[in-house]
Design a protein that fits this description.
about 300 residues, alpha/beta, Spore Coat Polysaccharide Biosynthesis Protein SpsA, Chain A, 2 domains, eight-stranded mixed sheet
Length: about 300
């Protein structure tokens, strides 16, 4: 065990004081049985509860339990990035703080890594705990990202094992501000392996994800991996041109036939359609401009308030 490589378990947490100790203990019980060196790094994403105090107490009991507190809530994607940057392991496992990612899968992930896999993806087999509406929305969004972005995110999760080389690539060579962790780990390639799990019941509290945050993450994923939505603007322009041609042809034909051109309803419908196309086009362009704006500001991904047990 003394010569075995160090495995880092990265747990992003936001207001998880009620359950973070249970999660840490569950991970320890599994990882200790693997007879390897390990550390647990909890990234406190600006929690407003007692998460930081809990981590101080856990660190006093075991120095291998460490914590990184961000100055405010920067979001899960940036919390994961901070964990990858500050973890010391030869391999790093990212896992949620709510125990919906089963720690029991960790030994299998380590075995795949030891067999040569540089990235081990844990893929959701079932989503029993989600409502039918959320399941449908998530499925449609994943299909859209997979088909347009060229990356497979079907039932993907943030529960992954990354070799240190992969983590270094994500931290140092992929500098974009708007990040989609699941997509980046699929996009970079290298040797991959897949394991499947059933989503567990959340241990404590309520989910931090809403349809709004899911939609925002989906927009980030699409704009990060494909420019195809911009081509929709050109498509809408072509549709508008065809529509205008048809209406003009109908008006000319009616004039030739000597019929009065009753264009009121047609004009109103045309204006509404063209106006809708314009607004949709401006919205799509605006999303990409907003992403460019975020990138050129070059602000840091996160700021650290304090660390517990970290020497770096």
């Amino acid at each position: 065990m003394e010569s075995s490589p160090l495995i880092s378990i990265i747990i992003p947490a936001y207001n998880e004081a009620s359950g973070i100790e249970r999660t840490v203990n569950a991970v320890i019980s599994v990882i200790s049985a693997c007879q390897i060196n390990w550390e647990i790094l909890v990234v406190d994403d600006g929690s407003q509860d007692d998460t930081n105090q809990t981590m101080m107490r856990l660190n006093s009991l075991d120095q291998r339990i460490k914590s990184l507190r961000l100055s405010r809530n920067f979001g899960k994607e940036n919390a994961l990035l901070a964990g990858l940057e500050y973890a010391s392991g030869a391999a790093m496992i990212t896992i949620d703080a709510d125990l919906q990612h089963p720690p029991e899968l960790i030994p299998a992930m380590i075995a795949e890594w030891q067999a040569g896999a540089q990235i081990v993806h844990a893929v959701k087999r079932t989503r029993q705990q989600e409502t039918r509406l959320k399941k449908t929305a998530t499925h449609l969004i994943n299909q859209l990202i997979s088909s347009l972005g060229g990356i497979d995110t079907t039932n993907s999760s943030d529960f992954k094992l990354l070799d240190r080389e992969i983590a270094a690539i994500i931290v140092n060579q992929l500098p974009e501000k708007q990040r989609f962790f699941r997509g980046l780990t699929s996009w970079i390639g290298f040797t991959e392996a897949y394991l499947y799990f059933d989503v567990e019941q959340r241990s404590d509290g309520v989910s931090k994800w809403s349809f709004g945050s899911l939609f925002e993450l989906s927009v980030t994923a699409l704009t990060s991996f494909t420019s195809l939505p911009l081509r929709i603007v050109s498509l809408l322009g072509i549709v508008t041109l065809i529509l205008g041609f048809l209406i003009a042809s109908d008006a000319i034909w009616s004039l030739i036939q000597g019929r009065a051109v009753s264009g009121f309803a047609t004009i109103i419908i045309s204006i509404l359609m063209i106006g809708s196309f314009i607004m949709i086009s401006l919205g799509i362009i605006g999303e990409y401009i907003a992403k460019i704006y975020e990138e050129v500001k070059a602000r840091p991904h996160y700021l650290i308030s304090n660390t517990i047990g970290i020497k770096k």
